[in-house]
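A quick aside before the break. I want you to see a complete sequence-to-structure record at least once, exactly as it would be stored in a machine-readable document. Don't worry about memorizing anything.
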Amino acid sequence: MNIVITGGSGDMGKAIISEVKTRFPEATIYEINRNIDKNTDLKGDLSNLLDVYNVSAKLKKLQIDVFINCAGWSEPVPFEDLTVKQINDRVNINFYSPLLFMQAVLPNMKKMHKGVVINISSVTAVTPVPNLHIYSASKRALDSITVSLALEYSKYGIRINGIRPGSVKTRAASLGRSKLGELKGLSDDMYEKEMSRENGYDRLLDPSEVAKMVVFLISDDSSGINGQIINVCGTMEVHS
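That is the input. The structure line, written in C-alpha cells, reads:
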C-alpha cells in the first residue's frame, strides 16, 4: 500500500503517520514537505503553486492507494490587516494544493478502480472564528470539493472523505490560539480553557484522536462511508 501525506512534519501529521504505521506496517509512506529527510519524501512548499505543480507531476507517476491532505495554515490576522500575499498563501495551502494533488492522483486511482482520499478540514469551516476568515473559507471550500468529488468518483471504487478536527493540542494550533486570545484580550491560559470547554471535555483533543479516525477511514471497516465530512471535535459542533 502506497500512502502520501501532506503536513507530515506537524504534530497532527506525525500522529497520523504513527497510527498508519501501527495499523498498516506494510505501507510505504511518502511525505510532501519543504525539507527532504527520506528518499520517500517529495519536496514542496505548498504556499508556492510552482512547487505544487512540480510535486503534482511526480504524483502522477506513482501508484497511490491513499492520499491524505493534512497540511493547513491557520495563523489569525485581523481582516483589515490581511495582505494579498497572506490571502494567497493561505488559500494555496488550504485549498489549491489539495485540489491540484487530488487532480494528480485520482486518474490512477480511477484506473485501479480503488483508492482513498482523506482531507483534513476544520470545525471552523462550519463554525467560523473571528480573525480566521481565510482559513475558515478555504476549509469550507475544501469540504465542498471533497463531497462533490466523492459523488463523481464513487463509481470507480474511490472513497473521498473529510475530517473536521476541533481544538487540538498541537504546537501550531497553540500558537494560533495564543494570537486569537491576544486579539480577544485574553491570556493564553484563559483562551485555552475557553477552547477546552467548547470541546465539551474540559481538555483539548489529542492529535491521536484525529489520527485514529484517519486510520478508520483508510480501512475496509469504513467501506460504507463516502462523501462525508466527519467532525472530531467533541461537542463543539453537533448535529441531530
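Two observations worth writing down. Residues 84-112 form the longest helix (29 residues). Strands lie at 2-6, 28-33, 41-43, 66-69, 115-120, 158-165, 229-232. We'll return to this after the break.
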